[in-house]
Specification:
The protein folds into two domains: 6-96; 100-142, no CATH class. The protein is built from seven helices and two strands, in the order αααααβααβ. It has helices at residues 6-12, 17-24, 29-45, 57-66, 82-96, 101-114, 128-138; strands spanning 98-100, 140-142. The protein is globular. InterPro entries: DUF4158 (IPR025296).
């Protein structure tokens, strides 16, 4: 996620009114910016980060600016309580209608094999690096 320029920031990390409403429901600033980081990184990467505080400073600053949080490094406090992060992941999965990859793997395999011009080798022909990341449990797929 290192190369996030202005276009990527605006496309994936901009918080619209609906996003802001969700984020503002969190009480403390570190939870607001942490929730915003979860929401926007899953939008950008298609998966939740194990450590959502490990985002580029430019992304943290962009989120903080939108949320009127003066100190973007307050995000580091988000990792102090693992249950909060996990609660936020569950909330976002429900709201965004994401499912664990393992739940949809058979459906995805069947879809890949039905694609015209693709041999029925499924996993090998589908971006191995991306599929491998999904299969290891970190990826979410829209339900």
């Amino acid at each position: 996620m290192g190369g996030t320029g202005p276009r990527e920031l605006e496309r994936f990390f901009f918080l619209d009114d609906t996003d802001r409403e969700l984020v503002e429901s969190k009480r403390r600033s570190h939870n607001r910016i942490g929730f915003a980081a979860q929401l926007t990184t899953v939008r950008y990467l298609g998966m939740f980060l194990n450590d959502p505080t490990d985002i580029p400073l430019g992304v943290a600053n962009y989120l903080a600016e939108q949320l009127d949080i003066e100190d973007a490094p307050v995000l580091k406090a988000y990792s102090e309580r693992e249950n909060t992060r996990l609660d936020h992941v569950r909330e976002l999965r429900r709201l965004l209608e994401f499912r664990e990859f393992a739940e949809v793997e058979p459906e995805v395999r069947a879809w890949v094999t039905r694609q015209p011009g693709r041999p029925a080798r499924g996993r090998r022909r589908c971006s191995t690096r991306r599929w491998g990341g999904c299969a290891s449990g970190g990826c979410c797929c829209r339900g």
